[in-house]
Amino acid sequence: MRLTKHIYTLGAALCCAASLFFVACHQQPSSSGETIDDRSQTPILEVDSVTTLVSDSGIVRYRISAREWRIYDKAEPTYWEFPEGIYLEKFNETLDVEASLKADYAKYLDQSELWELKGQVHALNEKGEQFLTEQLFWNQKTEQVYSDSAITITRESSIIQGVGFLSNQTLTQYTITNPTGYFPIEE
Questions:
Q1: CA 104 to CA 111: how far, in whole Å?
Q2: What is the pTM for the complete model shown?
Q3: How far, in Å, CA of 116 to CA of 101, rounded?
Q4: Smallest Cα–Cα separation from 90: which of 56, 46, 115?
Q5: Is residue 12 part of a domain?
Q6: Residue 56: beta bridge partners?
Q7: pLDDT tens-place string over residues 155-183
Q8: What DSSP assignment string belongs to 65-130?
Q9: Most buried residue, 7, 14, 79, 182, by most Cβ within 10 Å?
């Protein structure tokens, strides 16, 4: 009788445990997320808080930082996007910053090697001149920087403003369309 009671108790405990196991393992409908209908609108790479160094002949020349970087490899044309902005520093041989560029938004069309910078675009060239505009394009193939937007250039002894801008890629030789500005004149 004792053995039968223990077997009965053990059997009841196993049945209870088994029923709890099967209830716990009951398969819920899976939520696999949304399907991707248009691959051109989905980035192949999405990176948060990226900083990279670019070197030439073993010497660090640039530092690029961005809060977010996306690569769209199936879009036409393919492009990289920096929706939270981008910051770039150019170094000299002793690693001093000799030029910099900051924008609220950046897009790089990799096939045509064209950068579009938007928002508050700030640039500092090797001469210490500061550039401020709302939109700037940099064509790496032609090595030109240009804009149709209003631009302000702050130099050591003058402030130049205008609408429209064309420059070499180092921002050291430039032309402003429709210029205005403050030019001090010595008497």
A1: 23
A2: 0.74
A3: 12
A4: 56
A5: no
A6: 59
A7: 988 899 999 999 999 999 999 988 886 66
A8: EEEEEEEESSSSS-EEEETT-EEEEEE-TT--EEEEEEESEEEEETTTTEEEEEEEEEEE-TT--E
A9: 79
